[in-house]
Amino acid sequence: MSTILDGKLISSQIKNELKNKCELLGQKYGITAKLAIILVGNDPASQIYVASKQKACEYVGIQSVTVKMDECSTQEQVINQVKLLAADKSVNGLMVQLPLPKTINESEVLNAIPPEKDVDGLTVNSGGLCFFGLKGFTPCTPKGIIEILTRYNVDFCKKHAVVIGRSNMVGKPIAQKLLQLNCTVTICHSKTQNLADFTKTADILVVAVGKKHLVTADMVKPGAIVVDVGINRENGVIYGDVDFNNVSKIASMITPVPGGIGPMTVAMLLSNTYEGCLNQNNLKDEFL
Ligand code: NAD
Fold first, then answer.
1. Residue 207: phi, psi to the nearest 5?
2. What are the pLDDT digits (tens) for 183-239?
3. How many domains does the chain divide into?
4. Shared-domain flag, residues 245 and 151
5. Which of 20, 80, 226, 241 is most buried per CB count within 10 Å?
């Protein structure tokens, strides 16, 4: 049986660490970190995600403000709202909840976020820094994957990592991070032929597709470390991209869905916001 990589447990440890740091920041410097979220429209999943981010902020002592905008808002109106919050000195982290309504160009909106407040790490600027391995905000999900594996003492060096998915939010940045950690990386995607030929050679397999149980036990090398990013809702139940029940019998480590990468992603948003707050106040962790 595999070790279950418990994202709920690790994320709560991280949140408690951040809670202590935020308390010290307040006591020593009178500073409260602040996250601003722009939510456009009424997508039910987005509303749930934003509510969980607000709740997590409250727990650690990060102030949060959510600006709700009408489904019919124009791209210009959303960009103007981004610019307003970008100019607000009290805001340390700024994110736009995705997806945006189809009439709005996501990239135009995201790239209006200044790099120093881009806590979701989804601007071209942050992507470039991540690609070059320079200091900047890493998107929360890839950051959460590396964090949980590191806290379970995974040794990345010389491992063959296979990533399924090539999105800007997950697939591409996690592949970069694994490369920087000295993995040999293969990226698979919707046009990959004979997916199992690649997945069977993976020491570390990261699956970020959005297809329930795409990865079955016969596609996984015994002893592999399996990270399931997928969130697939069916009749009110959430499933991952990996057939957990069977893959967990042969993997050495595996993340569950729910309770794996999801809570880690939220914890990393808090961590990035805290980091943004320190940077914007010319402070470092060791000053606390
Ligand atoms: P996306 O739709 O942008 O990308 C999906 C990727 O999967 C694409 O690159 C595509 O090439 C690839 N793909 C599609 N069908 C495939 C197939 N049959 N074989 C191989 N590759 C295939 O999605 P995303 O934003 O990267 O998210 C992926 C999944 O992860 C979704 O289920 C999403 O809900 C979930 N997600 C979870 C978290 C979290 O916090 N747990 C965060 C972000 C995304």
1. -115, 115
2. 999 999 999 999 999 999 999 999 999 999 999 999 999 999 999 999 999 999 999
3. 2
4. yes
5. 226
Cα separation, 39 vs 78, whole angstroms: 9
Residue 279 located in a structural domain? no
Return the percentage of the chain with pLDDT > 90, whole number.
Answer: 98
Instruction: Report the C-alpha gap between 211 and 214 in whole angstroms.
Output: 6
The tens digit of pLDDT for each residue in 32-54 reads: 999 999 999 999 999 999 999 99
CB of 222 closer than 8 Å to CB of 196: no
- Residues 149, 232 within the same domain: yes
User: Distance from the CA of 28 to the center of ligand 1, in angstroms?
Assistant: 42
Q: 216 in a domain, yes or no?
A: yes
Residue 183 shares a structural domain with residue 250? yes
Please report, in angstroms and rounded to a whole number, the separation of the first and last CA atoms in the chain. 42
Contact (Cβ atoms closer than 8 angstroms) between residue 101 and residue 71: yes
**Which protein residue has the closest C-alpha to ligand 1 atom 32?**
210
Q: Give me the CATH number covering residue 181.
A: 3.40.50.720
Type and span of the H or E element at 165 = none
Residues with CB under 6 A from ligand 1: 141, 164-167, 169-171, 188-190, 192, 195, 208-211, 229-232, 261-262, 265
Q: Once rounded to an integer, what is the mean pLDDT over residues 237-247?
A: 98
Residue with tokens 């940045």: 173
The verdict on 157 and 239 lying in the same domain is yes
Q: Atom 6 (ligand 1): residue with closest C-alpha? A: 165
Computed over every residue of the chain, the mean pLDDT equals: 97
Q: Whose CA is nearest to atom 5 of ligand 1?
A: 209
| pTM > 0.85 | yes
Mutation to probe ligand 1, out of 164, 167, 233 (largest number of atoms < 8 A from CB): 167
Cα 168 to ligand 1 centroid, rounded to whole Å: 10
> Residue 275: its pLDDT value, please?
98
Centre of ligand 1 to C-alpha 230, Å, is 6
Active site residues: 53, 97, 120
Q: How far is the CA of 196 from the centre of ligand 1 (A)?
A: 17
Q: Report pLDDT for 286.
A: 80
